């Protein structure tokens, strides 16, 4: 470790903790203690924390007090997490409609902060995170980086926008990043000049770790591909927030020269899951959240429902994350960890296209089309399904291309879908989430079995 890394580890992160009023370092130490526990030990810790949280809900949170009484649910006598499956799932609308009743009556002792989160429809959701829950999110992130070799204090580059990087850096923000030893680049409305600047930085500084939205990192990889350039010196790339498909992963790994460790998270529900070096699923943070799967299909795939075990100010119990996946209790992974894994993460419920004949098509379908991923004149694309029989293809193009060059995509897709849908093509006009500014490749407004709750 060099001097700056040592400083960050011993002092910098602690200063950030003080400024944020979090206890990330302490929580991280606790998470390291349980990192290699066996599954029985992990489940015991998880159940104990779940029970404590639910008892707190019964005593201090008006919304849950009423709900528990309606469903004759007594957290003090539960014997396993499955006992709470009798409770309904908590939706974003439930949170909006019961906002003040979800606050604990002793909320101030948990040092809460009001936070907004973006939704796929662009509707913001506000909720309180307490200091412990906030610190836990950071600690889980650092532990997850460790799966790719990162050690606390080492420098990493952040390539993200929205919630991970405020667009306008306030006074003090540069210092905030400096103490964490991270270098950030603006990537909202990323332009070619930014990509060039990022490439030059990597070339000169040779950072070892990169963290950012998969869609932004993919944009960088596509830029490098178009220039026939490669980055070297990276040890691991941590992607987050957007679905990452196999061809995209390959492209990133080829041009950025390091393995991708994808993660999946839902911060309001306390979920932060990470790939390990086996890259076959996402170990989930069992010590600080509880996940179960609702409305499973025959393969066990269903809606991911999570309880945040750290947020006592504004407890989130059985929350519908809006994501689809499968959960596996697999015993010890070859990496040595036993945390259950989310497998077959299918992304958002709205990433699924449902055709008029009822056939469902996952968004990944489009990412496998060579028309999209092999053509470097397309710098970005998005598929929107406004109605069952309509698909819109939105493209951002390199300077030398014009939209009519891509009529063949419409033709081949119409043939693929047996002319059940009419397809239009347009340049730009992407649909963005208003809060997080995340880019989503596929957005369907058509309901499927998972968007209509049972
Ligand atoms: Zn593993």
Automatic annotation (TrEMBL):
Signal peptide: none annotated. InterPro entries: ANL_N_sf, CapK_Type1_Caps_Biosynth. PANTHER family: CAPSULAR POLYSACCHARIDE BIOSYNTHESIS PROTEIN. This is Phenylacetate--CoA ligase family protein. It comes from Desulfonema magnum.
């Amino acid at each position: 470790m060099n001097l700056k890394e040592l400083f960050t580890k011993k002092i910098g992160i602690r200063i950030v903790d003080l400024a944020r009023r979090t206890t990330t370092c302490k929580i991280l130490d606790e998470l390291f203690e349980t990192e290699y526990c066996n599954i029985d030990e992990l489940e015991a810790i998880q159940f104990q924390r779940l029970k404590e949280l639910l008892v707190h809900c019964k005593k201090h949170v008006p919304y849950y007090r009423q709900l528990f009484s309606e469903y004759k649910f007594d957290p003090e006598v539960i014997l396993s997490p499955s006992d709470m499956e009798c409770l309904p799932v908590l939706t974003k609308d439930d949170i909006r409609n019961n906002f003040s009743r979800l606050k604990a009556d002793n909320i101030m002792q948990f040092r809460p902060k009001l936070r907004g989160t973006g939704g796929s429809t662009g509707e913001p959701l506000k909720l309180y995170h307490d200091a412990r829950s906030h610190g836990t999110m950071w600690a889980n992130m650092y532990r997850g980086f460790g799966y790719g070799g990162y050690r606390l204090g080492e420098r990493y580059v952040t390539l993200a926008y929205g919630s991970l990087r405020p667009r306008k850096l306030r006074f003090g923000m540069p210092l905030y990043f400096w103490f964490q030893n991270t270098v950030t680049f603006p990537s909202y409305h990323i332009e070619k000049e930014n990509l060039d600047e990022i490439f030059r930085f990597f070339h000169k500084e040779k950072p070892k770790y990169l963290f950012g939205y998969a869609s932004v990192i993919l944009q960088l990889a596509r830029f490098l591909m178009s220039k026939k350039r490669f980055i070297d010196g990276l040890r691991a790339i941590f992607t987050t927030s957007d679905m990452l498909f196999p061809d995209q992963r390959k492209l990133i790994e080829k041009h950025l020269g390091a393995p991708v460790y994808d993660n999946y998270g839902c911060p309001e529900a306390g979920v932060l899951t990470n790939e390990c070096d086996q890259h076959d699923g996402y170990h989930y943070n069992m010590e600080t959240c509880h996940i179960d799967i609702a409305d499973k299909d025959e393969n066990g795939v269903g809606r991911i429902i999570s309880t945040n075990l750290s947020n006592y100010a504004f407890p989130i119990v059985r929350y519908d994350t809006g994501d689809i996946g499968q959960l596996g209790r697999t015993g010890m992974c070859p990496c040595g960890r036993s945390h259950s894994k989310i497998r077959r993460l299918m992304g958002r419920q709205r990433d699924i296209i449902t055709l008029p004949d009822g056939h469902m098509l996952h968004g990944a379908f489009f990412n496998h089309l060579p028309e999209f991923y092999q053509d470097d004149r397309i710098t970005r694309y998005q598929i929107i399904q406004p109605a069952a029989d309509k698909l819109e293809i939105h493209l951002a193009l390199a300077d030398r291309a014009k939209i009519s060059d891509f009529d063949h995509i419409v033709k081949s897709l119409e043939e693929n879908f047996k002319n059940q849908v009419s397809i239009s093509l347009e340049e730009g006009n992407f649909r963005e989430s208003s809060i997080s500014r995340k880019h989503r490749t596929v957005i369907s407004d058509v309901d499927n079995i998972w968007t209509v709750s049972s």
